Amino acid sequence: MKVVSLFSGCGGMDLGFIKAGHEIIWANDNDKDSIETYKNYFCKKLNMNPKHISLENIKKINTKKIPNCDVIIGGFPCQGFSMANPYRHIEDNRNKLYIELLRVIKEKKPKYFVAENVPGLCSIGGYETKEDKKKREGRILKMILHELRNINKIGYHVVFKILNTADFGVPQTRKRIIILGTRKDIKPKLKHPEPTHHKNSTKKIHQWKTIKEALKGLPEKPNDKIPNHLGTSHKVILNGYLGNRPTNPNKPSPTIAGRGGGTGGPVIIPHPNLKRRMTVRETARIQCFPDDFIFKGSISSQYRQIGNAVPWPLAYHIASMLPYE
Length: 325
Hints:
This protein is an alpha/beta fold and 325 residues long. The protein has helices spanning 12-19, 32-42, 98-108, 130-135, 139-149, 211-214, 280-286, 299-308, 312-319; strands at 2-6, 23-29, 53-55, 71-74, 112-117, 156-164, 175-183, 197-198, 206-207. The longest helix is centred in the N-terminal third of the chain and has 11 residues, at 32-42.
């Protein structure tokens, strides 16, 4: 299917859809470093047309410039919704960018859409009723779902579910809300994928992948002979706070965050040896980026791009639920 990617970042979700056999025909983000990273991989490695990659504020893009498509995907910016942001607020401007997702879906009328965000979206704004709390639908999420379902005269069948990336082969316990939309005149309805991995393996399901598995083959001493295998000089201080907790090599990583609370820099977890923090390449391994996926921009920007991305295996399993044309 032909896919339009909004808020594409460096392309984690896009990579999953491509691996599942779909075609990205247009992608957009307003971050220069992310677009440079995206072009470096998708154009040079996968021969994607660079003219289909847009570096521009989505608010300023006329939908006529966006090609018609079967699917629209978008992990709309989530820093304002994140539980890691103690200053999160309904009126945070970053929380309003989903309106642009709505605008493009309304105009292009795709058969399907996939939207991704953080679990904090469930609770921001509080719960209106006991029933909402039971459903995990906070006021903002309820509003977003309502608007997506009634976006045009045709309307969409919309479902959401919190998925853990560790359940899909990612060495990281990263939970995300995945919202799926199917245009009401289209069958079958898009469904969430079933887990392929679990904390405890069985005959039918694999064991969660660990940090140790993810880092296998990388030299423990950072060096510039391996792309992006350099990192921050920020010291390791174990105090129990986000980014300062011991890293267990025999478990999946905690969530790789793009940015800390408020306007702080990226959260970089300690290496399992607890003597330094993870390099950019190690962090990318935990997010399942291939080693030839080279990140551009400053070190801080590289960490941020990785932390904001959707791990491609999760996107792959979601994309695999779509019919092929």
